[in-house]
Every structure is written in structure tokens, then in C-alpha cells.
């Protein structure tokens, strides 16, 4: 079997380590290079002892990578840094970017949500938005794919089909989302210490989180007119998992039937029986997204609950799903892990 040699940029971070864990048993991908910034020069086994059982290349700087031995790149770097790095890669390389740098199509929207001009607007035009359940055909032919944000994937997977089918009021969408602390990355500082995250629970970036730009972009496309959704993220005292509770004006039984039909053949999206609700522990360590639909006691309102693992379907698993499509491989290759419980 032909092996595709991959470089993982940002391998000393949480999503980088998750890419290594998943790719280590992928039958068609082979890890050729791993990079870090402050941790360059160290062995992966020293940075992540749980990966010591694998035979891995050492962490180097990006400048030290020998690109002649690389066919494809997973870029798991902070946003803003990423756009310069991807612009400097050899053009023959296929790239899946896990950061937010190439998700927003409108440079003005990027400036609004990220506070500075995008430095690579020409490159942005070549990028395909990486939510495979909706953009699979374009992803297959893409050179660069921008993975969706983790909160965004959780919210959009049920919402896009609902709005496309006109089953909910686009002017009344309320997304109440909660994430495990790994969503903030390994470099997160005081706010993500055990003492700050455990035994408590709080909202953050209220009415101003940068994922709103991405949510509005995709929901507006789905509805065929501008949509401005309400979205509030919260930090959970747990490592992994995102749960989004979305309130809609629409008929729950119709919405449930539509989602069940729309996702019937999707390998990673599962609609629970009507009235049942999912939990983050039902997807931990897996590439699956679960959706529950419940009728509100107020007639004409619906509650949709969606869950995924932010490090897998919300980041590294989704990135491999996209790379599988770009390489013409079966989409599920290397991603068939069953969730870990308890
Ligand atoms: N965590 C999550 O759940 C999700 C994250 N994402 C996105 O994926 C990307 C990676 O996230 P995550 O793994 O959590 O982040 P981490 O903070 O855990 O890791 C960041 C990685 O980037 C490296 N790095 C940092 N700055 C530079 C630089 N200037 N030049 C080169 N390398 C650098 C770090 O190296 P070193 O360790 O040596 O400093 C590390 O390997 C981010 O854009 C994030 O927003 C997307 C979806 C979900
Ligand atoms: C818990 C937590 O802090 N989550 C991160 C979002 C997760 C993420 O990585 O999103 P991007 O891919 O868009 O960077 C945050 O709220 O900024």
C-alpha cells in the first residue's frame, strides 16, 4: 500500500498529540516530521509519555523539516502564526489547517473577529471550508482545507440541515455551548489551571466569542440570507468534550425526522431516538457527533443537543477525515475508534 508521508506542525500541543495518536494506527499515513516551538529538540516521549510506545521522529523547528520527504501537512499551530507558515510551504503539499486562520471567507470578517488584517488573502481564496458532512465534494479536490472550529462543528452539524430545509426561524437561534479545558490548548495559562477550572463553571467571551463569525458565515449560507445567531461558550471542569444546547423556533418532530434522514448514511453523525439526549462521555476519544432533539414544553419550540470530542471530531479526527478525502481514501480510514467509557 502507498504510504502518504505527513508532517505534523505543532505536534507538542494537544491537537498535535491527538493527531499522532490517531495517525500511528492509520494504514495509509506515515509520520515523517513533527515540529514544536519552545519544545523543539525534545523527544515526543519526553513531552507526551503516553506516546512513548511509538517510534516517532524528534520534535524539530519548522525550518528544520526536510520537505522532500513529506507529501502532506497537518498544521496545528496558533492562529495568526499559521497563515505565514502555510504561505511558506511548498505548493505541491496538501494541507489541513486546524487553526482559525483560513475559515472566514471575508477578510473584513477576519479583521472584525481576530483584530488584525489577514496577511494571506490571495491564499484564502484557494481554501475549502473543512466540514466534511457538507463540503465533501469540494474537499476532495482541495489543496488546503480549513478545519472548522470545535464549538462551530458542534453547533453547525445539526443547524445547517435545519436551516437549509427552512425548519426553524433563522432570526431566533440561541446556542448555549460548553467545552472541556483542553479546548484552550496546552499553552493556556492561569485561567486553565486545575485550581481555576475544577469545582466551578463559568461563561466567557460573552456576546463576543470569535467563533460567532464562523457560525454566522455558515448559517447564512444555509439559510440563504444573513443570520446572526446568539452563542455563549462556557468552560467545563473536564478535559474533553463539547455539548451545545440550541434553542430554536420550529417543530421538534419535523426537525428530528429531517435530521434522522439527512444523517442516516453519515458514518460519524448519529441522531438519537426522538426525545433522547446525548452526553459528552458518549463520544470521548472518538470521531462521532451525537444529536438529540426534544420538544420544548412551549409549543413550536425545539431543543437540539449535540456533542463531540473537541480534540477528535472537533479538531484532529476531523482533520484526518478531511485528509482522507483529499487523498482519495475511504473517509473513515483510521477513525473507527469506539468511544472510551467511563
Ligand atoms: N484544543 C482544541 O480543542 C482545538 C484547537 N484548535 C486549534 O488548533 C490549533 C492548535 O491547538 P492546540 O493543539 O490546542 O494548541 P496548543 O497550545 O496545545 O499547541 C500549540 C502548538 O503550536 C506550537 N507553536 C506555538 N507557537 C508557535 C510558533 N510561533 N511557531 C511554531 N510553532 C508554534 C507549540 O509548540 P511548543 O509546545 O513548543 O510551544 C505547540 O506545538 C490552534 O489554532 C487551535 O485554535 C481547533 C479545534 C479544537
Ligand atoms: C475552551 C476554550 O478555550 N476553547 C477555545 C476554542 C477552541 C478552539 O480551539 O477553537 P479554534 O480552533 O477556533 O482556535 C476558545 O474558546 O477560544
CATH superfamily of the largest domain: Dihydrodipicolinate Reductase, domain 2
Order of helices and strands: EHEHEEHEHHEHEHEHEHEEHEEEH
Radius of gyration: 19 Å
SS field, number of helical segments: 11
Q: Tell me the fraction of residues in β-strands, as a range.
A: 15-25%
Mean of pLDDT: 97
* Poorly predicted runs of 5 or more residues: none
- Count of distinct strands: 14
Adjacency order of strands in the biggest sheet: 3-2-1-4-5-7-6
Tally the structural domains. Answer: 2
From the coordinates shown, what is the CATH architecture of the largest domain? 2-Layer Sandwich
Question: What characterizes the major β-sheet?
Answer: 7 strands, parallel
Distance between termini? Answer: 36 Å
* CATH fold call of the largest domain: Dihydrodipicolinate Reductase, domain 2
Which small-molecule species are bound to the chains here? NADPH dihydro-nicotinamide-adenine-dinucleotide phosphate, N-acetyl-L-glutamyl 5-phosphate
Shape: globular
CATH class call of the largest domain: Alpha Beta
- Assign a percent range to the helix content: 25-40%
Class based on secondary structure composition and strand pairing: alpha/beta
What is the chains' assembly state? single chain
Domain Semialdehyde dehydrogenase NAD-binding: 5-142
EC number: 1.2.1.38
Protein name: N-acetyl-gamma-glutamyl-phosphate reductase
Active site: 150
In short:
The chain has 342 residues and is of the alpha/beta class. Helices cover 29% and strands 21% of the residues.
